[in-house]
Every structure is written in C-alpha cells, then in structure tokens.
Amino acid sequence: MASEQMEYYKAKYQTLEDLPGVGPATASKLREIGFRTVEAVATATIHEMVSAGIGETTAEKVINAARKSMAITFVRGDELVKIRSNIRHLTTGCTSLDYLLGGGIESQSITEFYGEFGTGKSQICQQLCLTVQLPYEQGGLEGGALYIDTENTFRPERIIQMAPKFNLDPDEALRKIIFAEAYTSNHQTVLLENADEVIKENNIRLIVVDSVTSHFRSEYLGREMLAPRQQELNKHLHKLIRLSRAFNTAVAVTNQVMAQPDAFFAKVVKPVGGHIMGHTCHTRIFLRKGRSNLRIAKLVVSPFLPEGETPFRITERGVEGDEDY
Ligand SMILES: Nc1ncnc2c1ncn2[C@@H]1O[C@H](COP(=O)(O)OP(=O)(O)O)[C@@H](O)[C@H]1O
Ligand SMILES: [Mg+2]
Questions:
Q1: Does 91 contact ligand 1 (Cβ within 6 A)?
Q2: 89 and which of 14, 53, 104, 284 could share a cystine (Cβ 3.0–4.6 Å)?
Q3: Which of 60-74, 159-173, 183-197 has the highest mean pLDDT?
Q4: What is the mean pLDDT of residues 275-296?
Q5: How far, in Å, CA of 297 to CA of 281, rounded?
Q6: Matching CATH number, 87-324, of 3.30.1120.10, 3.40.50.620, 3.30.230.10, 3.40.50.300
Q7: Domain range summary for the chain, segments of one domain joined by +
C-alpha cells in the first residue's frame, strides 16, 4: 500500500534540472534565490521570481512545468474511495476531544492545534505519542511516533507519567518515540526531508511538529521577509502532507497565535502562518483556557465535521475529558 501511494504522489520531475527549459545556469540562479526544489518552484508566483531577477517568460515556463509535474492525476470516484479507505483515526486518548474530532485525528492529513501558551498543545501531542502505540481496536495505529520539538518542551518524564493510563509499559513506550530537536527552521526542514528512512524503519504512524511555525516566525522578520517565510513554510507543510500520505501516518502540528490587529474591542487571536497554514492544515483546533483549570477545544475547520466546542482537563494522568475519570 505504502509504495503504491508513494508513486501516486511523486512529482514527475525530481530536480530543477529535470524541468523542461531549465539548464544548469537557470537552475543555479533559482537555487541562489531560494527555489531549491520542484515543489518550491511549483508554489512560487511569477511576480516573486521576476522580482528576484528571473525573466518573465522563463519564470512562467518553469512554474507551469513544475505545477504540471506536481499535479495529481485524475482519478475516478471509486478509486478515490479506495485510496481514502486507508485513512484511519487515531484516538487522542481523551473522550471529549475524540467526540469533537469524530473519533480522533485522521491519517493522511495535518491536524493543527493552535492556542496561547499553556493551553495544552504540547500535552495533547505527547499523549498522542502514546495512543498511536495502542492496538487498532483501542483507537491506536500500532506504531511509533516521530516528535520534532522546536521549543524544547517534550518531557520523557511526562510520557512515563501518562503511560499507565493506556496500560503501556513506560520504557517500552519511550523506545517507540523517536525524538529530534530542531534548532532552526532550516534544521526543521532538513530533518523532515530526511525522515523517510526513519519513518519506515521505526514503523512511525504519527508525526508531531511542536511547534511548526515558531522558528519561521522568529527568523523571518519584517515585511520583506514575509514572502520567503511563507514559501519555506509552505514547502515544509507539503513535505509533511506527502509523508503522511506515503506512509499513512497521522500528523499533528502546533501553532502559536497572535493578536488580530484590527480587533479593537474584544481580544481576538488568530493562528500564525496566514493562508498557507489555513490551506494545508485540514483540521484546525483552537485551544483556550476556561474557568478553574478547564481547557476548551474548538473545532474551527474540518473537511467533514461541523464546528463545535468541548471542554477537557490536563491532569497528572494526562489529557482527559469528564468521561475519562
Ligand atoms: N504533570 C502534569 N500534571 C498536571 N498538569 C500538567 C502536567 N504537566 C503539564 N500540565 C499542565 O499543562 C499546561 C501546559 O500545557 P502545554 O501543552 O505545555 O501548553 P502549550 O504547549 O499549549 O504551551 C501547564 O500549564 C499545566 O497546567
Ligand atoms: Mg507547547
């Protein structure tokens, strides 16, 4: 199954030089201005390239070729059903969150948890690293987790503390979590670009990136950096989507929020990353603090579920709903 899906999503052209009309000179020019892969070219705009010094005709030609290369071929509806029938739900281990999500987070797409500091994003991600190890009958995916941490908040001690709730042996559970700390956005990108083997060898069924935007946000400062930042973030997120489809893994990412500048009265926050995050994260959940240690999860975007809200708690045992006591 995995290899079949890999073929399905693979780009026709692997390197810039493979693109029709791109010789070594154009390729090196493209790399120089930050378009290093066919995927990056495919998501570029003509304007972006022209302002970086590429001729308009060339820009148009290369972008079109790259886009064609990326395009998913047409499939019949019944074939699509077959492809989609491989999608599984991974339980969050919290009944109220599972209910909100229609059974858990889906494989083959990205689920985003966003909210202010301390709202439970990392706690949910760490709990998912345990539930992914559970048998299918219990809502797990019978595999391991790959955890990319950019904020240095992953705590093995917390995994050990939460493991008993899922009847998992703490040491064994830790062995099935592959951890990497990403020090820069570039490091984060490179880690994922080289993740295929690790995913295969360790039967990884969940990829966590906590947080997916923080490095991008702190490194690309100022208006003129916005376009390159969004381009790199887009590339990174698409790599995540491709990995999730190729290996049928679930992907959970966390994201910070920023105050909405045009909201004068109420305090309104929105997730970082603009329309790029909006378009690539298929399911988005907003977390906030409620009264007396309660947290509230709101399903903001879902391809197939209605909007909704549910309370949950973070306790010593883990992330829990009222039914979990
Ligand atoms: N062992 C624990 N027992 C109870 N609550 C905990 C424990 N560990 C963390 N928490 C709670 O989780 C909160 C942090 O959640 P976290 O997921 O790190 O937030 P975020 O990633 O959204 O910034 C803390 O404020 C604390 O209340
Ligand atoms: Mg966190």
A1: no
A2: 104
A3: 159-173
A4: 92
A5: 16
A6: 3.40.50.300
A7: 2-70, 87-324
Evaluate whether the domain defined by 2-70 bears CATH number 1.10.150.20.
yes
What is the pLDDT, as a whole number, of residue 285? Answer: 96
Ligand 1 contact, 143 CB (< 6 A): no
What one-character-per-residue DSSP string does 130-147 give? HHTTS-GGGT--SSEEEE
Better-predicted residue by pLDDT, 182 or 20: 182
Of 95-99, 127-131, 269-273, 310-314, the poorest mean pLDDT is in 269-273
| Structure tokens, 126 | 């760490």
Is the pLDDT reported for residue 42 higher than 90? no
204 half-sphere exposure, CB direction, 13 A CA radius: 27
What is the enclosing helix (H) or strand (E) of 148? strand 144-149
Distance between Cα 46 and ligand 2 center (Å): 37
Between the CA of 238 and the centroid of ligand 1 the distance, in Å, is 29
Residue labelled with tokens 């070219």 = 41
Chain centroid to Cα 257, Å, comes to 16
